[in-house]
Design goal:
The complex is a heterodimer of chains A (126) and B (154). Chain A has one domain: Beta Barrel (OB fold (Dihydrolipoamide Acetyltransferase, E2P)), CATH 2.40.50. Chain A has 3 helices and 6 strands. Chain A has helices at 2-20, 22-25, 73-79, and strands spanning 39-49, 55-61, 64-71, 91-98, 106-114, 117-120. Chain A has a 5-stranded mixed beta barrel with strand order 1-2-3-5-4. In chain A, strand 2 and strand 3 form a beta hairpin. The longest helix of chain A has 19 residues, at 2-20. Chain A is globular, with a radius of gyration of 19 Å. Chain B has 154 residues and is mostly helical. Chain B has one domain (2-151). Helices cover 81% and strands 0% of the residues of chain B. Chain B has 7 helices and no strands. In chain B, helix 2 (13-20) crosses helix 4 (59-87). The radius of gyration of chain B is 18 Å and the shape is elongated. Classes of the chains: A alpha+beta (126), B mainly alpha (154). The A-B interface holds A 2-3, 6, 13, 17, 20, 23-24, 26-29, 49-53, 56, 67, 73, 77, 82-83 and B 10, 16, 18-22, 25-26, 29, 48, 51-53, 87-88, 90-91, 138, 142, 146, 150, 152-154. Chain A: InterPro entries: DUF6152.
């Protein structure tokens, strides 16, 4: 009797857990959460956390502050991009793809141009 | 208030070092994961026994190895979690799943304290109190793991 309840509970828990998984598909890991159209954003750097677990530059644009996502640390390293090269106040343009949710000010970046200097985060996608 | 504290934390030398490191952050991340694996692997077996499975095995005999293994795992996870938090503290502090995770951990810790307050719990065979402790434990640690994993996908 108890084991019957238990197994039902466990089945429910397993089902509940798998129900959470589709949310992962729409996330900033990978490109599936972003649109296919080319997108660019210009603004000024509010702040940047580069490196682990992935880089994010906060960019103030005309319509507010955007999350400009840069991908994993290895890509940033290959592009020669470090935190001190993205100082607050610098003029920045990011090329890539914006988040599928139009209400969300977030894009994932293939090329970041900071103060005229170009960093190719995903050279094979450009 | 929390936002300011998070901004300060994120700007510390420790957070900068973790962000810029090629090996340190993955190592801390791996240790956190190892802690979770030890904690949940051990505690899930003990919780299922508390819920009434394997009644032929004395609780005392199971608790002796499983409690210290789970405790060690919990220690590793608690020691490394705050380090992971520092690297993007501002974004994490704005993520509701972080607070769901903290709440689940809180429930799990209170549950441990309530069970272990009675030194005699290991000598009991079964009962509603043990079942409740096992159920709350399973739910809280599973909830903490699920919320923690989903922080990255929010």
């Amino acid at each position: 009797m108890l084991t019957c309840i238990l197994s039902r509970r466990r089945t429910l828990a397993a089902l509940g857990f798998t129900a959470l998984l589709p949310a992962a598909a729409a996330a900033h890991h990978g490109w599936s959460g972003y649109g296919t159209d080319d997108f660019s954003l210009t603004g000024t750097v509010e702040g940047a956390t580069l490196g682990n677990p992935h880089g994010v530059v906060k960019v103030r644009a005309a319509d507010g502050v955007w999350d400009v996502v840069l991908g994993p640390p290895s890509n940033q390293r290959r592009a020669g991009l470090t935190e001190d090269l993205v100082p607050a106040g610098a003029a920045v343009t990011a090329y890539g793809h914006r988040h599928l949710d139009p209400g969300r000010r977030e894009m994932k970046t293939e090329r970041l141009v900071v103060a005229g200097r170009s960093f190719d985060i995903y050279p094979d996608r450009l | 208030m929390i936002g300011e504290a998070a901004a300060w934390l994120q700007a510390t030398a420790l957070a900068q070092t973790l962000r810029a490191s090629a090996w340190l952050y993955p190592l801390v991340n791996l240790t956190h994961l190892l802690g979770i694996a030890l904690l949940f692997g051990a505690i899930a077996a003990l919780d299922l026994r508390l819920l009434g499975l394997w009644r032929g095995v004395p609780l005392e005999a199971l608790a002796r190895p499983l409690v210290p293994v789970a405790g060690a795992g919990l220690g590793l996870a608690l020691a490394t979690g705050p380090l992971l938090l520092t690297v993007q503290a501002v974004d994490y502090a704005a993520n509701p799943l972080l607070y769901a995770k903290f709440a689940a951990i809180g429930v799990g810790l209170v549950n441990i304290a309530l069970l272990h307050r009675r030194a005699a719990w290991r000598a009991e065979a079964a009962g509603p109190r043990l079942r409740a402790a096992g159920l709350v434990s399973l739910a809280s640690w599973l909830g903490a793991i699920a919320a923690g994993r989903l922080i990255a996908y929010w």
